[in-house]
Amino acid sequence: MFAPSQEEVRRFFCGVHAKARSGQMLDALETLAHEWLKEHPEYDAELADAEAAVGRVYDGSDGASNPFLHLSMHLSIS
Q1: What is the pLDDT at residue 51?
Q2: CB count, 10 Å around CB of 23?
Q3: Neighbour-count burial of 70, counting CB atoms closer than 10 A to its CB (0-12 exposed, 13-18 middle, 19+ buried)
Q4: Rounded alpha-carbon distances, angstroms, from residue 77 to 24, 26, 62
Q5: Is 34 helix (H, G, I), strand (E, B) or coil?
Q6: Residue 40 burial (CB < 10 Å; 0-12/13-18/19+)?
Q7: C-alpha to C-alpha distance for 43 and 64, rounded to whole angstroms
Q8: How many whole angstroms from its chain centre is CA 34?
Q9: In sequence order, what E strands does the chain have?
Q10: What is the per-residue pLDDT for 62?
Q11: Is 19 strand, coil or helix?
Q12: How far is Cα 17 from Cα 37, in angstroms, rounded to an integer?
């Protein structure tokens, strides 16, 4: 069973974002994740800073959604 931690999920998506931006090769799962990242350019700023993303609390109090939860949903359904 695949059960990554919250930090691992955030680092995965931030890593995919960074690799794609720099033109690096993506593996199969990263390619699928990148397809969803392209559908959500509004998350680019969140994905650009992995350390900030790992430390941020997404509790909805600021009206913002959790991009990592949303992207994980897409990836899980895919």
Answers
A1: 96
A2: 6
A3: middle
A4: 25, 20, 27
A5: helix
A6: middle
A7: 11
A8: 9
A9: none
A10: 84
A11: helix
A12: 7
pLDDT in tens, 41-62: 999 999 999 999 999 998 888 8
In contact, 19 and 26? CB cutoff 8 Å: yes
**What would the pLDDT profile of 67-78 be if each residue is shown by its tens digit?**
999 999 999 999
pLDDT of residue 34: 98
Q: Which of 29, 28, 63, 66 is nearest to 47 (CA)?
A: 66
Cα distance between residue 48 and residue 21, in whole Å: 10
The pLDDT tens digits of the residues spanning 10-37 come to 999 999 999 999 999 999 999 999 999 9
